[in-house]
Amino acid sequence: MKGKGFIPYNGLRFSEEDTKKRALSYYQYMDLRRSLRFFSDKMVPKEVIRDIIMTASSAPSGAHKQPWSFCAVSNATIKSKIREAAEKEEYENYHGRMSEEWLEDLSPLGTDWNKEFIDIAPWIIVVFRKPYDEVDGVKKKNYYVQESVGIASGFLISAIHNAGLVTLTHTPSPMNFLSTVLDRPVNEKPYLLLPVGYPTKEAVVPVLERKKEEDVIIWY
User: Fold this and answer.
1) Which of 55, 145, 155, 156 has the maximal Cβ count within 10 Å?
2) Rounded (5°) CA angle 40-42-43
3) Which H or E run includes 197?
4) What's this model's pTM, rounded to 2 decimal places?
């Protein structure tokens, strides 16, 4: 496809040997990533958060609509409001909304309704999905919104890890309170909350085993 609206692709190119090395190295690096609940309050520079978010915004999306917004929150008062509302919903989840099977599956992770990391982590990134945009007062539909924002969130988590920081995927349910606290427009719907920062020296993680190659890959 050539002509108006297209430019030559000038992407990276490696030898087969370097491709193999880079693929293995990246897998081994990402395999070190863990979700963490023990955050230091050490500040992370604003420009680091900016670059992490812009990495996420480089993700592919349906019809290149880029149907996302990222709210980066460091204000202590706003974080406390988010924590209060999140804990209210999570308390209800852990005391009646979640099934016994769900609670049993969560028990090895040591999770509960208390979300103190929202106050402690220097940054909270809230990802919003946009089913539509408004251009000059006219609604413009976005496509494959869930899938697109999911891919962008994966980019975001990878970028956080690459910066030497840690995070935790938090999806308080329901989470419409995030739209209220952050005063977002009606075309933005909360998708994911990520505390971002450095781990504490005493941080621990559950003993987990990821699925093996033969459990996740089916070759044809």
Assistant:
1) 156
2) 135
3) strand 189-197
4) 0.92
